[in-house]
Specification:
Number of strands: 2
Structural class: mainly alpha
Distance between the termini: 14 Å
Helix content: 55-70%
Strand order of the largest sheet: 1-2
CATH topology: MetI-like fold
Low-confidence stretches: 1-14, 295-299
Number of domains: 1
Shape: elongated
CATH class: Mainly Alpha
Oligomer: single chain
Mean pLDDT: 86
CATH superfamily: MetI-like
Largest sheet: 2 strands, antiparallel
Order of helices and strands: EEHHHHHHHHHHH
CATH architecture: Orthogonal Bundle
Number of helices: 11
């Protein structure tokens, strides 16, 4: 139990603890369903190269538009069917999951690292400078994330690497705003004021006292930003601004198959379903974390 003492007064530092939060999360059926689905998806993405029956770019010219196993004409060799070039859809979905999840995770971690650092610095800046920075962040946040990502890619050029840079830039303001506002709220509380009066320097105050109390908010933002990154990468790929063929990426797979939606609907339905289920599971986990880590509940 931590206390800050000054002028004979003691203030309890209420830090977040994981155990009651996990208990609340585990009792949320939707969150547990989402977590289970997400874990399975991540495991499939990790082991995908070893369990994929074919190379994602391998073409079977005599098996174009082979339907899935449950349709007439399907077989076990390509149980999810093939696309217009005879490429195995199951293999492409597995490699697409690996690429999409790895890129989204990288994007979120980089954006969070930069955004949290800038937000922490902004919280201790003079009010005039801080207000200018925050108004700029508000301006960026007022624009839809996909629209802003498209604008960035239009400036720096299409391609997978540039799409990654664009989504990172789009997500940074979310973490800057969240971190700055969370730290500012904590600084106004009794325990932070007591610690400052006790001589705590900003860095010590941030890491020892304030940091543990803003971790839940950052974790929740990480979850929803992961969903946003995944959707934006897929959308940029679909628009031809992200991953380029023949790369197996879910958004690019959607773009390649949209011309055949009436003739071979499974070529578009399967990557679309993969995107939908993954984003839905992430959002269910995010909602569960928000309920479990809400400081008003855990007090």
């Amino acid at each position: 139990m931590n206390y800050a003492r000054t002028n004979g007064l003691s203030f309890r530092l209420k830090h977040w603890t994981a155990k009651p939060s996990w208990q609340m999360f585990s009792h949320n059926n939707g969150a547990m369903l989402g977590a289970t689905t997400l874990v399975i998806t991540i495991l499939m993405a990790i082991i995908g190269p070893w369990i994929a029956p074919f190379d994602p770019a391998q073409q079977f010219s005599n098996r174009s538009f082979q339907p899935p196993l449950w349709n007439q004409g399907g077989n076990f060799a390509h149980f999810l069917g093939t696309d217009d070039l005879g490429r195995d859809l199951f293999s492409r979905l597995l490699h697409g999951a690996r690429l999409s999840l790895m890129l989204s995770g990288f994007i979120v971690l980089v954006a969070a690292g930069i955004g949290v650092l800038l937000g922490a610095i902004a919280a201790f800046l003079p009010p005039f400078v801080r207000n200018i920075l925050m108004r700029f962040m508000d301006l960026l946040l007022s624009l839809p994330s996909l629209l802003l990502a498209i604008a960035v890619v239009a400036v720096i050029g299409p391609g997978l690497n540039n799409a990654v840079y664009a989504v990172i830039l789009v997500l940074i303001p979310q973490f800057v705003k969240l971190t700055q506002s969370s730290i500012s709220q904590e600084l106004s509380k009794d325990y932070a004021m007591a610690a400052r009066l006790d001589g705590a320097r900003p860095i010590r105050l941030l890491f020892k006292h304030i940091g543990p109390n803003i971790v839940p908010a950052i974790i929740i933002q990480l979850t929803f930003s992961f969903s946003t990154a995944l959707l934006d990468i897929a959308a940029l790929g679909f628009l031809g601004l992200g991953a380029q063929p023949p790369i197996a990426e879910w958004g690019t797979m959607l773009a390649e198959s949209r011309a055949y939606i009436q003739y071979a609907p499974w070529t578009m339905a399967l990557p679309g379903l993969a995107i939908f289920l993954t984003i839905l599971s992430i959002n269910l986990v995010g909602d569960g974390l928000r309920d479990a880590l809400d400081p008003q509940i855990n007090q």
